[in-house]
Amino acid sequence: MRKHGLLTTALLMPAIMAFSAGYQLNLQGLRQLAMGGGGTAMPWDASTIFYNPGGLSRLDNFQVYGSALMIIPNVQYVNDATNTSARTQQKTFTPFNIYAGGTFKKLKGLGIGISVTTPYGSGTYWDDNWAGRYAIQYIELNTIFIQPTISYKICDEVSIGAGYVYGTGNVKLAKAIPVQNGTGQDGQASLNGSAKGMGYNLGVTLKANDHLQFGISYRSRVDMHVGSGTANFTTAPSIASSFPNTSFDATLPCPEVFSIGAAWRPMEHLTIQADFNLTGWKAYDSLAFNYGVAVNGSMRTSSARLYKNRLASRLGAHYQATNKLAIMLGAAYDPSPVQNNYVTPDLPDANRIVMTGGITYKPMKKLTILAALEYVTSEKRNAVSVESGLSGRYQTKAVTPGIGLSYDF
């Protein structure tokens, strides 16, 4: 009985990890992405609504901006005991971003805008019969955050801004159950859920002079609440009565992020910028689920996660090669918040090294075409999951190209 209870607890763990930690995306602006993901100090375009809402009132006009990206992740697992390996299936995920914001001549010093972004997403698909199928077979996550924003330029040196965040999302996953039916097939558990949450985004930009700018921003924690998720079980007849299909609810923390940044222009056409992002992963200390009916005799399951706060570092450069063409390069180091005993194969996490690049091109005065490419590789990580007992070495790699358009009014 206890074994089945632990199995039920483990079933729902991957959904929460994916939502709040394993796949936080920093892809909300292509120009910023191409410079290592930093954008706190310099309001390059309308995507400053996400990176620092204080920069919105520093734009010269009103802008509409949209981008689409493709995340192509690949995870390799090597089993400690057998030295056999497995890889995730090749899947492509497509986050997007839409912005409308900036300034108007008749509203001196005021910037307004709205964004629709996808700050969490992607997933992993393993073969149904791989060695870790009892931990996860597949998981996929999609989110949409909507943020209306207002900004005010107090003086030439200081501007401030704030945005309200409304988040919605959904997740689906499946894993095998280690109890076979009469034909020798594993059972399966699947989960589907939708979540909603609210938060806010604050920012300040400081212009020291024409060559040096600073920025500070704070994105609040967003607690995403799953109100009526569904947990479905396909099991052997001998245990079917212990695993009824049911609903569940849970609250999933998307952590706060405090960012500081600086942008320096050492020469006319070159800008160098640096960002530091402190993410409050400690909010993800435990998980709890409440069921509509008892699953294996329990109405509630809980598990420790014990994440740690982490500081990511980002560095990038922007070179205006001609009046129409700009070139960007960047890099970042993003340390993992996951402790060794809590690494799981749904979205295995490790310290990540990020390399980026991109271009912008203006075919006409008001229109800009943007393109960026990000390559992420994690350090190889040996880990044992205390919940599933799965031990082995993980390494994750991902390639993310993106393209976008912006138009100035």
General description of the model:
This protein has 409 residues and is mainly beta. The protein is built from three helices and 22 strands. The longest helix is centred in the first third of the chain and has 21 residues, at 2-22. It is elongated. It has a single domain (2-408), classed as Outer membrane protein transport protein (OMPP1/FadL/TodX) (Porin). A 14-stranded antiparallel beta barrel has the order 1-4-5-7-8-9-10-13-14-17-18-19-20-22. A hairpin with a 6-residue loop joins strand 4 (96-103) and strand 5 (110-117).
Characteristic key phrases:
409 residues; mainly beta; Porin; 14-stranded antiparallel beta barrel; 3 helices; elongated
What's a concise summary of this model?
The chain has 409 residues and is mainly beta. It has a single domain (2-408), classed as Porin (Beta Barrel).
